[in-house]
Amino acid sequence: MKVLAIFLLIAVAGIYAAEYKEEKNVLVLTDKTIADALEEFDYVLVEFYAPWCGHCKALTPEYEKAAATLAGEGSEIKLAKVDATVETACAQKYEVRGYPTIKFFRKGKAIEYSAGRTADDIVNWLKKKTGPPATTLENKEATADLIEKNQVVVVGFFKDASSDGAKVFTDVASGIDDIPFGITSDSDTFKEHEMESEGVMLFKKFDEGKNKFEGELTAENLKTFIAGNQMPLVVEFTQESAQKIFGGEVKTHLLLFTKDVEADSKDMVSYKEAAADFKGKVLFIYINTGDADNERILEFFGLKKEETPAVRLIKLEEDMTKFKPETNDLSADAIKTFVNGVLDGKIKAHLMSEDVPADWDAKPVKVLVGKNFVEVANNKDKLVLVEFYAPWCGHCKQLAPIWDQLGEKYEGNDNVVIAKMDSTANEVDDVKVQSFPTIKCFPSNADKAVDYNGERTLEGFQKFVDSGCDPTVAGQAEGEDYGDEEEEGDEEEEEEEEEGDKHDEL
User: Fold this and answer.
1) How large is the C-alpha radius of gyration of the chain?
2) Residue 90 CA, distance from chain mean position
3) Other CB atoms closer than 10 Å to residue 191's CB: what's the count?
């Protein structure tokens, strides 16, 4: 009887165990199987993708490489993917609003994936989320293996793992997900790396090869040290590097736009020389203008290819603020002077503007540029509703005929102005546009603009205008953001929208 009972248990388990299709070590999940997978496996990273999405296609080989690495190590972590355009029920359940959306499920509970999109980034992040913040390195061979397998590694050398310094090190390690940390008390490992006393060393496969932490070991100092050394002095902007660039601690970025990206070119040598003075303060990035994928970044900074090579600086703190040097001098000294001028507050932000068109007010929808915006929008006698758009934006194109109808509705009304502004060529102080379309109302006799986040219909806009731009008007609670653009429209428009991500990220 006991044998029969065991047999029945196995048989029943077989009936209820889910079977999953697998492609190159990646589970292929559906609306029907995702719940089973999240219950069966303690750790699952799930990519919700769209087949037409360019960023998803770029991620695929790195995602598969990460899955292969973990499988080869016998890890219990699983990587999975879901075609969110087909498996719409789970995409809706897990609030997928753009592609790719990557979520990590730890015993069924979801958290957002927040590291880069290379295989190393994925593996390191997952190991941090499922294991100790720092790997214990028993000997010099284990240390050498960790250093060899990773682009960047931070190793703590502490004789006593319970010391105050070791605790600071471990606390910092627990808060940095995209870099592996190791900790050792092995005397041979100390000798191997010429560590005469306790401390921290950052090993990397670029620039100097390694950096030794100097100074008082505090969490803040250690974080600053890592932020200043974990990336090359000069970083190329690519889809793969974007996450580290924007997700890093350094929020002031200098960008060199050039098609001559060879390391020994005159401009790159000067650029790298200048970068050494700003480690941990300013991230030096170069953008290959010969790559068609980067054309919108040029547009975002108001640059034409024929104006390059050139540098621009951007601060990504609360608002995106751009700065332009007064000269085209790309010598190391000129670059240092420009960056120091921005950091010291001596150089003001650069605002782009087209010239005012001669017929800017000839049609029902008025055309605003940087040079006439304040005069029109801040007219205290009028209510001014402005659409801030990008010429390539699919939702903006869909909105255009409705916006024209809205302009016609108020054409004879002396108290209302319906207007639009191309925000890829024009900027206004105190008006920050980070997604398209953005719609703002500048009410008469008011000091602050009111954002419109309601339905993009003629009736919705009319109701808003007729209320005097009252933010409590029905329909204001739910709005769209730029990520929504990736979910709607036909495939051709979707790819165009998805390409716009690069512009929106800056």
Assistant:
1) 27
2) 24
3) 11
- DSSP structure class, residue 428: B
In the three-class reduction of DSSP (H, G, I as helix; E, B as strand; rest coil), residue 439 is classed as strand
Instruction: Say if residues 147 and 174 touch (Cβ distance below 8 Å).
Output: no
**Closest of 454, 457, 362 to residue 402, by C-alpha:** 457
Token output for 129: 């989320």
- pTM greater than the 0.90 cutoff: no
Q: Using CB atoms within 10 A of its CB, is residue 2 exposed (0-12), middle (13-18) or buried (19+)? A: exposed
- CB-based contacts of 52: which residues, under 8 Å, 6+ apart? 491, 494, 495, 498
CA dist 98 and 84 (Å) reads 10
Confidence of residue 319 (pLDDT cuts 50, 70, 90): low
Which residue stretches of 214-322 are H helix?
Answer: 219-229, 239-247, 266-275, 295-300
Residue 114 CA to residue 129 CA, distance in Å, equals: 11
> If pLDDT is split at 50, 70 and 90, which confidence band does 352 have?
confident
Inter-CA distances, 17 with 12, 132, 366, Å: 9, 31, 63
Beta strands in 158-278 (DSSP E): 181-184, 199-204, 210-212, 234-236, 252-258
Distance CA 377, CA 357 (A): 16
Question: What is the dihedral angle through the alpha carbons of 233, 238, 239, 245, rounded to the nearest 10 degrees?
Answer: 30
Catalytic residue set = 53, 56, 393, 396
Label residue 348 by pLDDT band (50, 70, 90). Answer: confident
Amino acid at 411: E
Task: Count the Cβ atoms, other than its own, within 10 Å of residue 292.
Answer: 9
DSSP 350: P
Sign of CA dihedral 336, 342, 343, 344: positive
- For residue 495, the model assigns a pLDDT of 39
